[in-house]
Amino acid sequence: KSGFISIIGRPNVGKSTFLNRVIGQKIAIMSDKPQTTRNKVQGVLTQDASQMVFIDTPGIHKPKHKLGEFMLKVSKNTLREVDVIMFMVNATQKLGKGDQFILEMLEGNETPVFLVINKIDQVHPDNLLHTIEDYKAEYDFAEIIPISALDGNNVDRLLETIENYL
Ligand code: GDP
Ligand code: MG
């Protein structure tokens, strides 16, 4: 099995940390280069039963200028073509305007969207349940998976679940 995955989400939710963990140090350095308008491969994870290609989709936020509008358009088209969209959020923060903008942008897209709630090492399980309810009310997610990209908690389960969609 092989397929393409796009990780989207507001700054600092842990996207690079996740990629680092699953793919390795080298890739993170690559992905920290300044954003370009082109979608690019951030890394490839090859396992026994699958190959996952992670694609960078820059510009997924409210555009402030013409180039931003163009980048958003390119990324929107890419999001239609990947197999899975990982929408990553921060478990310690409430659903905000930035998250809402992304979810509105995803409306009408038929690609399965995973809600990946990161940084669960920093929250109490009761609060996590509330967060899940808030997000569920906003979008029909294919899967909801809490993880800690930092300590690796539940990351294997996330990868196994992605495999089922390739
Ligand atoms: P990005 O902007 O989405 O790529 O976010 P980064 O991967 O750069 O992470 C932003 C900050 O959050 C860094 O200081 C990370 O160490 C921290 N971080 C990322 N994942 C986790 C996590 O699962 N738990 C905790 N406690 N911190 C995390
Ligand atoms: Mg990053």
UniProtKB/TrEMBL annotation:
Stretches the record annotates as G2: 35-39
Keywords for the protein's UniProt record, in alphabetical order: Cell membrane, Cytoplasm, GTP-binding, Membrane, Nucleotide-binding, Ribosome biogenesis, RNA-binding, rRNA-binding
Record's GO cellular component terms: cytosol; plasma membrane
Region of interest (G1), ranges: 9-16
UniProt-recorded Gene Ontology molecular function terms: GTP binding; GTPase activity; ribosomal small subunit binding; small ribosomal subunit rRNA binding
Region of interest (G4), ranges: 118-121
The keyword Cytoplasm appears for this protein: yes
Chain segments carrying region G3: 56-59
Binding residue positions for GTP: 9-16, 56-60, 118-121
One annotated GO biological process: ribosomal small subunit assembly
Residue segments, region G5: 147-149
Annotated protein name in UniProt: GTPase Era
Organism: Viridibacillus arvi
Upper lineage: Bacteria, Bacillati, Bacillota, Bacilli, Bacillales
Residues of the full protein shown: 8 to 173 of 303
